[in-house]
Amino acid sequence: MNGCIFKRTLPSGRITWGFSIDAGKDKGGKRKQIFKSGFERKSDAGTALRQLLNEKDTGDLVVPDPQTFGGFAREWFREYGPRKCTPKTLERYTQLADYLTPHIGGTRLQEITPLMLERVFNRLKDSGGVYKKTQSPRPLSARTVHHIAGVANVMFTKAVKLKLLKLNPMQAVELPSIQRREARAIDANRLQWYLEAARAYGLYEILTFAAATGCRRGEILALAWQDLDLDHSAARISQSLEQTRDGLRTKSTKTQHTRTISLPSSLVALLKLHRERQKGNRRLFGLDYRNDLNLVFCDPQGSHLKPDSVTAKACLVARKAGLGAGVSIHTLRHSHASQLLSAGVSLPTVSKRLGHTDVHTTATIYSHALPKDDLAAAELWEAQFQTATEATGKTKVS
Fold first, then answer.
1. Residue 237 — φ and ψ, nearest 5°?
2. Cβ neighbours of residue 32 under 8 Å, at least 6 residues apart?
């Protein structure tokens, strides 16, 4: 039987109506049923029953489930996450999810509401939270809260697909607003100081490549000599080096796309010298040298450099050069884009060099570098207007 309506007499003598519906069997083969009661009239119970029967027929029926958010999160990380995310992303997702479990980990998945989630996110923003018990609570930035909400959204979306939820509660949540910050960049003069300071720390070639191409840190550290065509001043960017708790691994680029970029002549000359010097290490280590990797930038034995270590050293170089905190290898990517845009290079060209998915992304991040182009556009219009005015003999309108 699909469902039935029943009458219930309360201790007060008041009569209410309810219904039950067969909802199939659980994983153990036990019969599952949905009960709802408290309807004032039999017709009301009948209407609700027909609605659920229709949802059952269309496959939209959500069966009551005692599973908590914490339990579902563990299942997600065990069954679904490893198949959808890179190890580094999964590592970060684990950290972000740990901010949520102290608040809603023990709450049934189907009892979590948008208001409940909104309060949690506001609390994390205002009062802070921890993902490790050894840490003290600290307020979180709005951006971090958005990242935590993103992980929650991914999990609730999966729960909807599994018919554990009818709707994703994150769809109605309002998050703290993020104050947009301009990408930090340094000008050509300070770039020279930075690169000169890098010589003493063995980072000159890496930082120069970053400054001249705008490539990401992982892309640079995964670069092999076969990816370079120095005779034609070109580099093929197809891989990225990722550092996780389990070690280093190469993966595809952030956008999953391969791109080819042109190299300036000074960088080509530097890379040729770098390759010659590297031959000394190849001879020194002999069979122990990692010729199988054939890396452009590597340790003396030809193995991968750790991305985090390169970043730490790049930040140290910046401080030694008097550039202050906050300047790192990633700053050179922003500087490359800003300098090209300010020099009048087209937005699509810069976007392609950076490996962005679309021009809009580039324009949003580097809007601060575009005012000169806007001024040039105004001056160009003025020049054309003046020429047309002189040609027609009309007086310029003041």
1. -100, 110
2. 22, 23, 24, 25, 26, 63
pLDDT digits (tens, 9 = 90+) for 285-341: 999 999 999 999 999 999 999 999 999 999 999 998 888 778 889 999 989 988 888
Residue 389: alpha-carbon gap to chain centroid: 52
**DSSP conformational letter for 129:** B
Contact status, residue 159 vs residue 72, Cβ threshold 8 Å: yes
Which alpha helices (DSSP H) does the chain contain, by range?
Answer: 42-58, 69-75, 81-84, 87-104, 114-126, 142-161, 188-198, 204-213, 217-221, 265-285, 307-320, 329-342, 347-354, 359-365, 371-392
d(CA 272, CA 92): 38
∠ Cα 350 195 303 (to 5°): 85
**H helices then E strands: how many in the chain?**
15, 8
What is the C-alpha separation between 112 and 109, in angstroms, rounded? 6
Q: Using the Cα atoms of residue 211, residue 214, residue 220 and residue 224 in order, give the sign of their dihedral.
A: negative
The residue among 202, 242, 185 whose CA lies nearest residue 365 is: 185
Interhelix angle 265-285/204-213, rounded to 10 degrees, is 150
Q: Is the dihedral of CA 155, 160, 163, 164 positive or negative?
A: positive
Q: Which residue has the tokens 């000159």?
A: 204
